[in-house]
Amino acid sequence: MNSYLLLFFAIICEVIATSSLKLSDGFTNLIYSIITIVGYSASFYLLSLALKTIPVGIAYAIWSGIGIVLISLIAWIFLKQTLDLAALVGMGFIMFGVVIINLFSKVSGH
After folding, report:
1. Which residues span the membrane (predicted)?
2. Cβ neighbours for 109, distance < 8 A, ≥ 6 positions apart
3. Among 63, 71, 98, 109, which is disulfide-ready with 54 (CB 3.0 to 4.6 Å)?
């Protein structure tokens, strides 16, 4: 399987796990606690597979950068947490950085 596809699924699992972590209410809600544990486990497993061919610094930059933006958007849309202009601009820079890495980095393992 393509390493970047594995990385994509690792990001999705991490976003689901982090969203569930908030909803687990300090691991007092069993369903969301289980989703959190399973999601993080799947995320790290898939990330470990992606790291077979993608350099760790590049993979982690993409994984964390996209994860930050997606979690922030989910918190904004579904959990009604506010994002001010500075937060939106910062997330734009994060996404711009991920694009630069993928388009121009010679060490990105393409």
Report:
1. 27-51, 58-79, 85-104
2. 3, 53, 54, 55, 58
3. 109
Q: Which two tokens stand for residue 32?
A: 């969301």
As a whole number of Å, the end-to-end CA separation of the chain is 14
Instruction: Answer with the residue of higher pLDDT: 87 or 35.
Output: 35
State residue 72 phi and psi, 5-degree precision.
-60, -40
pTM of the model: 0.85
Q: Which residue has the tokens 């497993």?
A: 45
Nearest to 40 by CA among 12, 68, 66, 62: 12
pLDDT recorded at residue 45:
98
The residue assigned the tokens 């849309």 is: 77
- Does the structure show a pLDDT above 90 at 110? no
